[in-house]
Amino acid sequence: MDSTQQEYLNLIAEIMDVRKRSSKPLAYIHTYGCQQNVADSEKIKGMLFLAGFDFTEAAEDADFILFNTCAVREHAEDRVFGNVGALKNIKRRHPSVIIALCGCMMEQAHVAERIKRSYPFVNLVFGTRSLFHFPEILYNVLLTGDRTFERDITEKSVCEGLPVLRDGSFKGWLPIMYGCDNFCSYCIVPYVRGRERSRSSEAVIAEAKDMISKGYKDITLLGQNVNSYGKGLNEDINFAKLLKEIDKIPGDYRLRFMTSHPKDCSKELIDTIAEGTHICTHLHLPFQSGSDRILKLMNRKYDRKKYLEIVNYAKEKIPNVSLTSDIIVGFPGETYEDFCDTISLIKEVEFSSLFTFIYSRRKGTPAAEMEDVATDAEKSKWFTELLKTQEEIAAKRCASMVGETHRVLVEEKNEKNGLLTCRTSGNIIVEIESDESIIGTFKDVKITEARNWILRGVLI
Ligand code: 5AD
Ligand code: SF4
Predict the structure, then answer these.
(1) What is the model's pTM?
(2) Cβ of 129 less than 6 Å from ligand 2
(3) Which of 3.30.565.10, 1.20.1090.10, 3.40.50.12160, 3.30.70.20 would CATH assign to domain 3-150?
(4) HEC readout, 64-90
(5) What is the pLDDT of residues 179-233, one digit of tens each?
(6) Which ligand 2 atom is at minimum distance from the Cα of 259?
(7) To test ligand 2's pocket by mutation, which of 261, 285, 362 has the most ligand atoms within 8 angstroms of CB?
């Protein structure tokens, strides 16, 4: 962050000292959507913290309310509109509160227009590429009281050095790149997060070292398509090389990454995972559809055969590799035959778990103009069939793990049953009975029982 923005943080602190309603100025931040948004919110929190803010879970108490929004599916957008509407009453009770909206939704002109028109109590809207001058924007709003819409900046650079206030103390996100150039025909991300740009390997490695020295045990490298990391950088680097470099950092930690695009997933990357010291034996490799016809319409640039080749290579090289994927059901033009190709692919690969979505029409994307053949009721039925198929596969996979020993990271207490939730290298959940004091540490556990897709184990 440059010194001008630092200066704005100091000015914000001075203003907030007068405006605050509690002993310290309070911010309420709600994040929707993916890990990239979580990572962005952690930067905003870092900046607010430097401006003297504390954080509250109660919007009612806050002097600054921010929703970091997601545009990937309509459902997420509807929730945001509903929740923003509910802020009207808070603004009525506390007129001094600043209400701000940021993130992917706000990069869409029609959304910003709707906020401008129908939600007059929203003070500030800014897009995904305005983070680096957030202090300046907020300062101007506080100073002038003007409604501000700061979006659609065609920011091409990567801003380094923003402060980060991470939500977790032992699990953390580390963005290695921003934006996406793939233009999958259903997806809004390239339009709202702009062109792909990578951080320098030096900056990423320095941040990883810093996190490890601070005790982070589980670090996830983030990007929309980590496999194309390094494109456009003035250094001899690719994602596999970056991963190898980070893996060399000494310490007791694990490395994960997401998301991989099958079209760019190299054998070099799979070999790197196989040979790694800290790299998890987990590959999240979204295939979206098992039908070549639909993959073409989706502009995914690989086919079923190529996908299976990568998966089989991973299974051969990485013992017990855990594979996960994203799937879209009901893409425009998808028939039951196409859907059956998805089901057969799932059965063939045997994923540990799946993130499954019903297709959501996104204004401005090519797929939004494509014709649909299936009804909503049919899509729902297919969706249920998909879930049921995957449940059976996951249950079978989990049952086969009984008796095995796994090194797990103990993550949190499940308040419902009092057990501790742990995660294997393959990202599979194991519940154990133990004392909360071991949260945040690695332990060896023996799997004793599989309850469908949840494992139970004991410490050894
Ligand atoms: N409708 C449904 N799912 C979508 N995804 C992206 N765009 C859409 C959409 N329009 C899913 C993809 C992607 C995941 C993050 O979200 O499966 O991998
Ligand atoms: Fe969207 Fe495709 Fe880019 Fe992923 S790779 S963010 S699905 S356009």
Answers:
(1) 0.95
(2) no
(3) 3.40.50.12160
(4) EEEEEECCCCHHHHHHHHHHHHHHHHH
(5) 999 999 999 999 999 999 999 999 999 999 999 999 999 999 999 999 999 999 9
(6) 4
(7) 261
